Every structure is written in structure tokens, then in C-alpha cells.
């Protein structure tokens, strides 16, 4: 057994023993009873073996050992929907809404997304990087090992590029998997007022092809809503993405049901996000296309929404449900994925295993990372989190205090707030 090691120092190859596994977060062929004593072997930055401790193959016996001291192990958490890179903040809108203004009223009065666009355009790339860095670090301290970061506060080529470059830089600097999503069709920039089609042409014909060419785009998203873009405009963006071979996602049904889920499903969207307003036809289309439903309880809570997403129907249809922070300065200034898991349970009535699958397995799928992330399984990256809690349900239970954890990335202790772990 090794003594406590400093972050980043642990040898990558090794046996992590005396840990507990949740069945729903490990590969189905791992024969470990819920909470039984398990072991995990890391070799070459990957999980080489995972199973009941007593079945550990002798061949691995010589590797260094790390005693997890009975901690629960989960895959690295995945935050699959964020707008993490932006200028400024919008606390004044919070106050306006407390005074009775609605999100739509604030947006129509020149606040909302467009006010973050002004601040983002005014910020340098380095300033955007410096403001996003501690936000990402906060999420990572809680176990996030893969994250999606959208553009959409630039709304012009150079400013969308700036956001996406910052997202890539953050991934490189912090050693976390970052998936970038181009959200040029987030809102109509003020200089295109009354010329929505011209802006969509710009998005489809210039911004997206150019940014894709620069290797800055992993997926394409649009905001299909009465205060944003129509179904027909959204489809033009999807068609442009398809021409470039890029997967799509959609902000749909946040304020109203415009049929976005059916459109997204026709384009085999990775995910449909928000979906408080979603018809049975939308659910059926998502199920048939394998599109993930991304639930964003932080935005629901912040806007004091009362229209619940159709959880029971999604569950009955077998649509995978992910849970994410939707971190953004307007509707979800949330920097705790575990708090979102809590809210998904309390507000949306997800079960704890559903919420935990929502921030791991299904979130990975919403990013197209289902073969590498979100599950503890042999062959996958050795990204996992050790939680010295009595019950795994504590991850979704505590409010306003992070459970301690030790984050292991590529087999190395990346950081930890845990008790003297391994
Ligand atoms: N839906 C959201 O929740 C964020 N974007 C979107 O399309 C909010 C954007 C904002 O208000 O800044
Ligand atoms: Fe969003």
C-alpha cells in the first residue's frame, strides 16, 4: 500500500483496491455486487481490469497498490451542456427578475443573451480565459473529467472563434476532455435586427465552415425558441452541420414546444436540451433516434419555471436522461454538477441512480463520448473519482457543501479534497 501521495505524483500503473462500485455506473459485465469490495487495475492510462477484489488476476499482483479505504468509485463526471466562456456577469438581471420581470421581458429589453454578447465581444481572449479558468476548476474539483463548452456569446466570426479557442486552451491547460459546440444560432445579434435570414446565412455559409476548418468545432447547436430561431432556421443550421459531417444538438422546448425535438431527431441529434415543453411525438422521435434528453434543473430553478419536463414519459419511453449545469451567466450561474443532480431528484423526481447516470453515462452519450467516458469498464480511460462517503446517495443529497473526493485522471491522482486517500 502506498502512503498518501501528492496530486499528479501517483504512478499511473497500479491497483486501486478496497473500493466500492455502483452497478449502474460499471459495465454490465462487471460481476460486482452493489457496494461490495472491488478492485480496479490501471495500465497505460486505461482501466485494464475491474471486478471483485478476490478475483483480481494474479498477473497484476506486482503493480503498486493504492488503498481506496472503502471509498465509492464513480466514473469521472461529465458536464454535457455549458456556456462556460463569456464576458461579465448578469446579477442585475437576477434583481430585475426578482422585481417581477420575466426572462423573455429582460431579453426583449436588450438584456439577456445580447448583454453577454456585448461583454464577450469587449473581452480579449486572455481575459475570457482568465475568467473561465476558476469556473472550470470549480467543476473539476467536484469530479468533472469531461465537459462541453459552447460558443454563442460572440455571434460574429472573430468573437465565436475567441470563445472556442479559449475552450480548447482550457482543455489543454487543465488536462480535461473538452468538447466544443458551435452555437452561432444562439440569438440574433443586434446588428442583424430584422434580418434573421441574413444572419442564419452568415452562420451556415461562413462562420460554421470556417470555424470547423480551424478544428474548433466538435458539434453544432441552435436555440430553437420564439425569442431565438424558428424551426426552419434551425433546420438550415443542422443541414450546414450535416454537410460538414458534424453532429448536432438542440436547445429545445425551454419556453415553448416548437417541434424542435422531432427536427433534432430527424438529424440524429446527440441530444435535445431543456425540453420542459415536449410532446409525446417529440419523445417518440427522440427514442427512435437515440437522442439523449438533457435536463437542466439549474435553469428551471433560476427562472422559477413551473412547467416540469415530462420525466415519467421519458422514463417510460426509455429515453436516456442526462443532467447538466447549463452553466451560463443568465439562467444558470451554477458551478456544481452534484447540486444539479440534487435538483434533478428534488425538482424533477429522478431517482438517485438516474441522476448519477445522468451526470456520467448518459452525459457522455450526449457528447458522443459513450465509448470512452461515463462508465467504469475495462478498456476505458482511467478517469474516476473516489468518494469517501457512507452511501453513494450522498452525492445527490448534501446541499451547499461538496462531498470530499479524490479525482484520478489517466490513472494519476489529479486533485483531491478527500480524507487521506490512497
Ligand atoms: N438557454 C439557456 O439556458 C442559455 N442559452 C439558452 O439558449 C441561457 C443564455 C443566457 O441567458 O445567457
Ligand atoms: Fe444552454
Quickly describe the structure.
By secondary structure, the protein is an alpha/beta fold.
N-end to C-end Cα span: 8 Å
Any low-confidence stretches, pLDDT <50, length ≥5? 1-10
**Could you spell the SSE succession in H and E letters?**
EEEEEEHHHHEHEHEHEHEHEHHEHHHEEE
Question: What count of helical segments does DSSP give?
Answer: 14
- Give the helix/strand class: alpha/beta
Q: Which value, in Å, is the CA radius of gyration?
A: 21 Å
| Ligand types | 3-[(4S)-2,5-dioxoimidazolidin-4-yl]propanoic acid, fe (iii) ion
Report on the architecture of this protein:
By secondary structure, this protein is α/β, with parallel strands linked by helices. Helices cover 34% and strands 19% of the residues. The protein has 14 helices and 16 strands. It has helices at residues 91-98, 103-108, 113-122, 125-141, 157-174, 196-213, 231-243, 260-266, 280-289, 297-302, 311-317, 337-346, 352-358, 361-366, and strands at 14-21, 37-43, 46-52, 65-67, 72-75, 77-79, 144-150, 177-185, 219-224, 249-252, 271-274, 292-295, 321-323, 384-387, 406-409, 412-416. The strands form two sheets. Strands 1, 2, 3, 4, 5, 14, 15 and 16 form an eight-stranded mixed sheet that branches. β11, α9 and β12 form a beta-alpha-beta unit. The longest helix is centred in the middle third of the chain and has 18 residues, at 157-174. The chain is globular, with a radius of gyration of 21 Å. It starts with 13 loop residues before the first strand and ends in a 6-residue tail after the last strand. The model is unreliable at 1-10 (pLDDT under 50). The structure holds 3-[(4S)-2,5-dioxoimidazolidin-4-yl]propanoic acid and fe (iii) ion. Residues 83, 112-113, 116, 186, 223, 251, 254, 299, 326, 328-332 line the site of 3-[(4S)-2,5-dioxoimidazolidin-4-yl]propanoic acid (DI6).
Amino acid at each position: 500500500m502506498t502512503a498518501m501521495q501528492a496530486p499528479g505524483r501517483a504512478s499511473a500503473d497500479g491497483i486501486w483496491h478496497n473500493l466500492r462500485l455502483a452497478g449502474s455506473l460499471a459495465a454490465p459485465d462487471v460481476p460486482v455486487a452493489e457496494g461490495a469490495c472491488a478492485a480496479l487495475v490501471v495500465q497505460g492510462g486505461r482501466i485494464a481490469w475491474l471486478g471483485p477484489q478476490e478475483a483480481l488476476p494474479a498477473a497484476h499482483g506486482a503493480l503498486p497498490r493504492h488503498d481506496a479505504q472503502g471509498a465509492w468509485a464513480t466514473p469521472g463526471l461529465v458536464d454535457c451542456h455549458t456556456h462556460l466562456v463569456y464576458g461579465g456577469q448578469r446579477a442585475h438581471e437576477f434583481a430585475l427578475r426578482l422585481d417581477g420581470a420575466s426572462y423573455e421581458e429582460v431579453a426583449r429589453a436588450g438584456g439577456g443573451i445580447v448583454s453577454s454578447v456585448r461583454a464577450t465581444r469587449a473581452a480579449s481572449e486572455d481575459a475570457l480565459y482568465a475568467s473561465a479558468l476558476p469556473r472550470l476548476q470549480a467543476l473539476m474539483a467536484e469530479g468533472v473529467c469531461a465537459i462541453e463548452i459552447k460558443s454563442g456569446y460572440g455571434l460574429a466570426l472573430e468573437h465565436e472563434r475567441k470563445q472556442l479557442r479559449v475552450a480548447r486552451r482550457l482543455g489543454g491547460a487543465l488536462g480535461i476532455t473538452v468538447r466544443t459546440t458551435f452555437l452561432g444560432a444562439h440569438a440574433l445579434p443586434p446588428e442583424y435586427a430584422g434580418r434573421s435570414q441574413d444572419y442564419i446565412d452568415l452562420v451556415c455559409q461562413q462562420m460554421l465552415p470556417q470555424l470547423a476548418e480551424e478544428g474548433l468545432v466538435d458539434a453544432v447547436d441552435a436555440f430553437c425558441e420564439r425569442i431565438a430561431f424558428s424551426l426552419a432556421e434551425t433546420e438550415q443550421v443542422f443541414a450546414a452541420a450535416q454537410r460538414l459531417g458534424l453532429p448536432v444538438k438542440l436547445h429545445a422546448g425551454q419556453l415553448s414546444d416548437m417541434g424542435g425535438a422531432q427536427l433534432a431527431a430527424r438529424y440524429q441529434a446527440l441530444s435535445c436540451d431543456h425540453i420542459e415543453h415536449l410532446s409525446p411525438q417529440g419523445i417518440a422521435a427522440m427514442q427512435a433516434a437515440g437522442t439523449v434528453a438533457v435536463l437542466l434543473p439549474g435553469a428551471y430553478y433560476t427562472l422559477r419555471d413551473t412547467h416540469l419536463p415530462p420525466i415519467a414519459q421519458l422514463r417510460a419511453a426509455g429515453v436516456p436522461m442526462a443532467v447538466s449545469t447549463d452553466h451560463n451567466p443568465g439562467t444558470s450561474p451554477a458551478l456544481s454538477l452534484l447540486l444539479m443532480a440534487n435538483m434533478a431528484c428534488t425538482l424533477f423526481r429522478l431517482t438517485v441512480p438516474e441522476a448519477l447516470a445522468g451526470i456520467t453515462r448518459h452525459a457522455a452519450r450526449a457528447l458522443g463520448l459513450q465509448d470512452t467516458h461515463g462508465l467504469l469498464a475495462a478498456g476505458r480511460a482511467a478517469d474516476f473519482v473516489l468518494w469517501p462517503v457512507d452511501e453513494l446517495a450522498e452525492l445527490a443529497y448534501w446541499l451547499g457543501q461538496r462531498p470530499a473526493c479524490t479525482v484520478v485522471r489517466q490513472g494519476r491522482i489529479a486533485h483531491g479534497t478527500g480524507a487521506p486517500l490512497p
